Amino acid sequence: MKNRECPYCHETISLKRCLKYLMRGTDYDTVCNHCGRSVRLAKEPKPGFKYSFVIGFLSIYLPMQTCLLFFHTTFVEALIYTLPIFIVCLAVIVSLTLHSLFFSGDI
Q1: How many whole angstroms separate alpha carbon 67 and alpha carbon 103?
Q2: pLDDT at 4 > cutoff 70
Q3: Rounded to whole angstroms, what are the CA distances from 47 to 43, 51, 78?
Q4: Three-state DSSP class for residue 53
Q5: Which end of the chain is more exposed for a tag (fewer CB within 10 A), N or C?
Q6: In this prediction, what percent of the chain has a pLDDT beyond 90?
Q7: How far apart are CA 97 and CA 70, in angstroms?
Q8: Is 28 exposed, middle or buried (CB count within 10 Å of its CB: 0-12, 13-18, 19+)?
Q9: What is the DSSP annotation of 76-105?
Q10: 75: exposed, middle or buried (C-beta count within 10 Å: 0-12, 13-18, 19+)?
């Protein structure tokens, strides 16, 4: 079975429906956008899924504090310097999570 594939109709579940798991968590079921049946995640996408947002927060907090304390920049300058680091870390976390979504039909 491919990732993000419905176990009933074997079509790919839309990215919009899968991105809801990043906001709500993995305890909810979703509906296939092709056949309309309810599907649930077979397992948690990553063992550290709950810690992904902590890693995302630390990826902007630690470089920002480094800029503020060691380079003596203003808050806005430090935010501008660390924003690309945060975007890259967030993109990596989201892509790794979406590539490990597998659904099951047992509810």
Answers
A1: 43
A2: yes
A3: 9, 9, 32
A4: helix
A5: C
A6: 31
A7: 34
A8: exposed
A9: HHHHHHHHHHHHHHHHHHHHHHHTT--EES
A10: exposed
Residue whose entry in the numeric block shows the structure tokens 């491919």: 2
Structure tokens at 28: 């909810």
Assigned token pair, 18: 């899968």
What is the model's pTM?
A: 0.70
Long-range contacts of 80-83 (CB under 8 A, 24+ apart): none
pLDDT tens digits along 53-86:
788 788 889 999 999 999 999 999 999 999 999 8
pLDDT tens profile 5-21: 999 999 999 988 888 87
For residue 33, give both structure tokens. Answer: 């956008």
Structure tokens at 72: 């003596």
Contacts of 7 (CB under 8 A, 6+ apart): 1, 39, 103, 104, 105
